[in-house]
Amino acid sequence: MPDEQDNQNSQDAQTKKQTRRSKLARVSNLKRQTYYALESVMCANAVGKVIGCALFILIVLNAVVVFISTQSGLDSFTSSAISAFYTFSTLCFFAEYLARIWVADIVFEDNSKAKARLHYICSPLGIIDLLSFFPSVLAWFIPMTPALRTIVNIVRLVRLVKISRYMRGLRTIGRVLEKRRHEIIAAFLVLALLIIVTSVVMYEIEHPVQPDKFSDLLSGVYWAVTTITATGYGDIAPVTPLGRAIGSVIMFLSVALVAIPGGIFSAGFVAEFQNVNRRGKKHDSSSDDENDVGNQSDNK
């Protein structure tokens, strides 16, 4: 069954690549190079490669500037430079967002132009792209209270998520989560059930003895989470013999249960990297095909 599913996925991927190559051959050179700059920078011309690399560098610089901007005691020149950089980044990310909407019909090759653009706008990465500039744009036109400014600064951190497009490891994590979501959800549901049961039991046992520590069920949940995850801060602990006995049993159970998601992730990563190795052999030929599409269209 896994081999049949992999073969079906490979056939679907090949069909999508052929459809995308057909669309690339029909669009204008500007749109084709815009797509390459945003989605496949190694296939772009010199200008497209510069733009694609510049976007990556801009995202990394935003991560550095976010760290610097949180430091206290910045002088006026540094604060002005950071503000100017954020303004420049906002304009660049706004232009990138519009460009991605424009080339969405190539990225989502199975859809019409309208559906493809709506698909991108509503996709997780599309929402991240929107949040990377929209709050800052709003801040230019509405009065900023300290609370709103704090919200804008927090939402600005979404820009750092954009780097996931350029990191294979993060994309691999996303694919593993998608393919193993049923097993992962089941494992975390078991952990959640254990946390709920143990928090209620421990609250009922310990609350009469130490009401200041186990003051409510949320205190029991906090103790259960720190115990099951082996964090063990020690600020809340059972003192009754029955509570300690139950806590010991929970610790032994948690060793096995907490390891389940880790095993699922490990198996998923092994399978995904095997698929990546198989796809890697086909990647070079598909990239050459896209380059050939661009060269042939340019010659026309």
Descriptive account of the structure:
This protein is mainly α and 300 residues long. The chain contains 13 helices and no strands. It has helices at 2-26, 29-39, 46-69, 76-102, 104-107, 113-122, 124-131, 134-141, 146-155, 168-179, 181-206, 217-228, 241-299. The two termini are 45 Å apart. The protein is 79% helix and 0% strand.
Helix/strand layout:
Layout: H1 2-26, H2 29-39, H3 46-69, H4 76-102, H5 104-107, H6 113-122, H7 124-131, H8 134-141, H9 146-155, H10 168-179, H11 181-206, H12 217-228, H13 241-299
Helix pairs in contact: 1-13, 2-3, 2-4, 3-4, 6-7, 10-13, 11-12, 11-13
Keywords:
300 residues; mainly alpha; 13 helices; 79% helix
| Average predicted local confidence, pLDDT | 81
Shape: extended
Q: Can you count the beta strands?
A: 0
The number of helices is 13
Unreliable stretches (pLDDT < 50, length at least 5) are: none
Gyration radius from CA atoms, angstroms:
26 Å
Structural class based on helices, strands and sheet pairing? mainly alpha
Please outline the major beta sheet. Answer: none
SS strand fraction:
under 5%
- Which sequence of SSEs, written as H and E, runs from N to C? HHHHHHHHHHHHH
Q: Helical percent range?
A: over 70%
Distance between the termini: 45 Å
Task: Characterize this entry briefly.
By secondary structure, the chain is mainly alpha-helical.
